[in-house]
Amino acid sequence: MMQENRPKRRAPAAPGITKPRARSAAGIREIFERFRAVEPEPKGELEHINAFTLLVAVVLSAQATDAGVNKATRKLFALADTPETMLALGESQVRELVKTIGLFRTKAKNVIALSEKLIAEFGSEVPANREALETLPGVGRKTANVVLNMAFGEITHAVDTHVFRVANRLRIAPGKNVLQVELGLEKAVPREFGRHAHHWLILHGRYTCKALRPECGRCLLVDLCDSADKRVA
């Protein structure tokens, strides 16, 4: 006799482990409405002159603070603010100017290499699409997202450590890695808030929803937050 094909039973979830539940659409809208009410036009904190210097600043900012990058790039950009002038400056001088930034040797090499590629392949212009940006030395998905958003006004969600933390704590886009969070934000954030969303999340994570000591007592979202990291006296 043929055995009946029965659906396989799923193994029960491990005790105490639950999949993070995303916040409702109405709850997510409320979060971004509050952000907008406080700061309608949030700005990135990396100083730059044009799309090229923005690109360079973002490449230099990997594993570094914006304040530290700005301190170095003020002198760098005074001397070179185009691919041609950066290339003329040379790797050794770029290295000397950015030596206060972590991984400065590799970053200086990438800045010169991307300047060469912009001149040779893109007419000295920063390309306005992700695929082309990601062919440049030192440019990954997050850097491309920042440039597309800040230089070209596209709706992108650059996920750094602050965005990752806040998106998970507030259950806007729960995810185990940055790509999951980015794709979750693309789906969850109402389009009207899209262009500024990652700046609101970065600034909130940098100054309020900090990793070790979140300042929940002055958080404008404290009543909406049910994170296990919440600290309220």
From TrEMBL:
One of its GO terms (molecular function) is class I DNA-(apurinic or apyrimidinic site) endonuclease activity. Gene3D superfamilies: Helix-hairpin-Helix base-excision DNA repair enzymes (C-terminal) (1.10.1670.10), Hypothetical protein, domain 2 (1.10.340.30). [4Fe-4S] cluster binds at residues 209, 216, 219, 225. It catalyses: 2'-deoxyribonucleotide-(2'-deoxyribose 5'-phosphate)-2'-deoxyribonucleotide-DNA = a 3'-end 2'-deoxyribonucleotide-(2,3-dehydro-2,3-deoxyribose 5'-phosphate)-DNA + a 5'-end 5'-phospho-2'-deoxyribonucleoside-DNA + H(+). Keywords: 4Fe-4S, DNA damage, DNA repair, DNA-binding, Endonuclease, Glycosidase, Hydrolase, Iron, Iron-sulfur, Lyase, Metal-binding, Nuclease. Its EC number is 4.2.99.18. Belongs to the Nth/MutY family. This is Endonuclease III.
